[in-house]
Fold:
Amino acid sequence: CHLRRYEGRVYAVNYLSGSVFRQDGALDVHEGTGVNPERQEAPHTHFIAPAPDGSCLLSTDLGLDEIFLYDGDLNVLGTAGVPAGHGARHLAYSEDGRTVFCANELASTVSVFRFEHGALTLLQTVPVLSTPNSGNTAAAIRVRGDYVYVSNRGNNSISCLRWDGKHLELCSETPCGGNWPRDFILVEDLLLCANEYGNCVTVLKVCGETLELLPQKLEIEAPLCIVALPEKE
Structure:
C-alpha cells in the first residue's frame, strides 16, 4: 500500500495482511480488530514514514485505529490511538516537527498529536467536512505553515484547516474539480490533485485557506499518487 526509504533500507506496509515489511525480510504482522465490522475486521496498515526527527518510523493501521512507532529493525517502540472507528490512514508533520497530523479515513477527521521524546500524545480530533456522511472518506493530508489540507473522496473536495499551535479548526472546503481525489501535492502556490475515478489531475491555486480551481487539467487513467521531482541544475 505504501513504502518509504529509511536509513538506507526500504520499508513497505501491506494493507490486506496488516503487516510492515523491510526489504531484507524483516516483518511485523499486526493482530486484532476495530469497531467497524466492515472496514476494521482485521488490521490494515496504510502508511509508513520516518518520524519528524528521524529517530524512528511511524506507521498507521486503519483497522486498529493506531499509529505504531518502530525502530529500524521493526521492533515496536510504542503506539498511539485515534478515536475508535475513525481509521488512521496517512500522516503529515508540522514544519517544526513537534506536531503530527493523522488523516482518519473512516470518520473524515484529523487527529492532532504532540511528538515529543519519541512518543505521540493525542491532543485533538476534528472533522474535515462541515456536513460529514458515510459516503465520504478522507484520503491524503499535507501541511504548509499553519495550514493543513485534506482530500475528501465522495465529497470530492479539498479541506483546509488552520493550526494555531493549540487548536485545529476547519476553515474551508473547495471542490477539487474531479472525482475521488486520492492524492495531491503542493508545489509553490499550486495544488495538484490526482482524481482516481475522474481519470485526471486537476490544478488549484492556493493562498492559505483560499483555494481556486484553475482550468488546467491533465487527462490520465486512474491516477493514484503524485511526486514532485526537483529541478535539474
In short: The two ends are 33 Å apart (CA to CA). The mean pLDDT is 96. The longest strand covers residues 210-219. DSSP finds no helices and 20 strands in the chain.
